[in-house]
Amino acid sequence: MDRYDVVVIGGGPGGYVAAIRAAQLGLTTACIDAWVDAAGKPALGGVCLNVGCIPSKALLDSSHLYETIGRHTKDHGIAVSGLSLDLPSMMLRKDKVVRTLTQGIAGLFKKNNVAWLAGRARLLGDMRVSVTDRTGAEASVITASHIIIATGSVPAALPGIEIDNGLICDSTAALAFSEVPRRLGIIGAGAIGLELGSVWRRLGSEVVILEALSEFLPGADFEIAQAAAKELARQDLAIRLGCTVTGVTVNGTDLRVAYQKDQGQHDLAVARLIVAVGRRPNTEGLGLVECGINLDGRGFVEVDDRCRTNLRDVFAIGDVIGGPMLAHKASEEGMAVAETIAGHATEVNYACVPWIIYTWPEVAWVGQTEQSLKTNGTRFRRGVFPFLASGRARAMGETGGLVKILGDAESDALLGVHIFGPNASELISEAVIAMEFGASTEDLARAIHAHPTLAEAMHEAALAVDNRTINL
Ligand code: FAD
Ligand code: AMP
Predict the structure, then answer these.
(1) Is the terminal CB of the chain with fewer CB neighbours within 10 Å at N or C?
(2) Which CATH number fits the domain 3-155+280-348, given the four candidates 3.50.50.60, 3.30.200.40, 3.30.2350.20, 3.40.1190.10?
């Protein structure tokens, strides 16, 4: 077939979800994806499944287990001896998790009748798309009634610092080190820098993270950021704020990172360096400008609130349009666009996108922070509950962190929920649902939470908004 109702470019969490939803809605759908795995085989799932969310979580979970067994079983009365790290097996496990999931998407495509075209897409104009194979030869030209651009993002580089994936790496290479670096430098204390730093610290590296901003996690609530900074420092994850990296010199195996702090020039010697300074939209060679599709000043595809570009039948979703560069945001946009194309009225509620940083304890939040409410002049009430006072957290030996709930001072509407604590990534879903349903803090306070659970900390924080917490 060379004509489809919907052609999706990119098979990451934005693109593959859009393709499946479009097919479910009865639209003939193709998904073109250029990803090839380390063995040179086409693989669906984009950055998220291949070199992002999934492999990073596999390594975070393995390294967390390693650290727990090595350091924390004694408190539970369990003595362990002869613990050792088998890094190649840990990496093989991670690769297997990735392979199982990417192959799963191929299965889902088959089941839903989505045509998977492995190759690189380029827009030719007049709703035609060329697909080239790995040699650059044109394999086919297909025509679409609607096009969804979901080409994602690639790691951003720093001027003058060449990422060779030897000593100087991006996040992709940092998920596949063959040995634990003795001293590891990381540029950037965002989610990716903190997660990779946590993995390698737990496995034995001495980790130093250099961050240009003087504030830690500026997007998070300040109280949560403060608690996380304190705990991560206690874990020996050295995060140096206000340090702008200006260059790197490599002399054989001697790697030195030059940075500026307080007007002074400093340098840091490390065995390996990860550059984790953000990601940029992936639009190279896609033919967007040639087809008259508008990009913004930073190169993201410009879209309206329904993810429609300036060309009526061309949509864009996920990392390539900017906003929160998160897999679940991309997938939500994918579903919404497929439904819009099929004639349904759907939109994404950007006010309820959860943010998570998978350190341990984890950082998770949804909605507004205390500082953003103050800036907007919104009057609010706050309730805080520490995990130290949670029975379940005590039983688990996980008493670090807190839950903070912010409600509107007049209407009591839930405005933001912020967690630093064990399983925060799971706990935050309750807050997302509550906010989606327009709940008040009292609604959360009145809902029965099972005992003993970590979720009771949410309940108590909601009670605390009205100064009626019980267990503190
Ligand atoms: P992508 O996943 O980037 O997929 C785009 C796809 O399009 C790729 O397969 C690419 O090969 C293909 N493509 C590009 N150009 C073309 C072309 N011309 N023709 C054909 N195909 C093309 N997010 C979370 O929500 N949670 C996490 O825990 C998380 N962890 C992360 C950890 C790391 C280390 C990294 C790097 C990212 C992480 N992210 C996480 C971010 C997440 O991976 C992205 O937000 C998500 O992958 C974006 O999805 P997407 O569909 O927009 O694009
Ligand atoms: P994120 O955008 O959340 O992935 O985080 C990337 C982080 O890298 C941000 O906190 C930036 O402030 C930081 N960063 C960017 N450039 C530099 C630099 N030259 N030196 C140190 N940190 C940087």
Answers:
(1) N
(2) 3.50.50.60
At 429-468, the pLDDT tens digits run 999 999 999 999 999 999 999 999 999 999 999 999 999 9
**Opening angle at CA 413, ends 409 and 415, nearest 5:** 90
For the CA of 218, the nearest atom of ligand 2: 10
Single out the catalytic residue among 76, 344, 451, 459: 451
Helix (H) or strand (E) holding 29: strand 29-33
Residue 219 CA, ligand 2 centroid: distance in Å: 13
For ligand 1, what atom is nearest to the CA of residue 155?
Answer: 36
Q: How far is CA 410 from the centre of its chain?
A: 34
Q: Is 35 in the pocket of ligand 1 (CB under 6 A)?
A: yes
The rounded mean pLDDT for the chain is 97
- The per-residue pLDDT for 1 is 59
Mutate to test the pocket of ligand 1, among 16, 20, 31, 48 (most ligand atoms within 8 A of CB): 48
Distance 48 CA to ligand 1 centre (A): 5
Q: In testing the pocket of ligand 2, which one of 211, 239, 267 has its CB within 8 Å of the most ligand atoms?
A: 211
Ligand 2 pocket list (CB less than 6 A): 158, 187-192, 210-213, 243-245, 277-278
The mean pLDDT value for 34-60 works out to 97
Domains 3-155+280-348 and 168-277 in one fold? yes
**Ligand 1 geometric centre to CA of 54 (Å):** 11
Where helices occur in 235-342 by DSSP H, the ranges are 327-341
Residue 306: DSSP 8-state: T
Domain locations along the chain: 3-155+280-348, 168-277, 352-465
Res 17: pLDDT: 98
Helix (H) or strand (E) holding 20: helix 15-24
- Summarize the confidence of residues 132-152 as an average pLDDT: 94
Name the CATH superfamily for 168-277: FAD/NAD(P)-binding domain (3.50.50.60)
Taking 90 as the threshold, does the pLDDT of residue 173 lie above it? yes
The alpha carbons of the chain give a radius of gyration, in whole angstroms, of 24
- φ, ψ for residue 290 (rounded to 5)? -60, -30
**151 Cβ below 6 A of ligand 1:** yes
Q: Which two tokens stand for residue 173?
A: 């290479």
Class of domain 352-465: alpha beta
Task: For residues 422-434, give the mean pLDDT.
Answer: 98
pLDDT of residue 138: 85
Q: Is 311 helix (H, G, I), strand (E, B) or coil?
A: coil
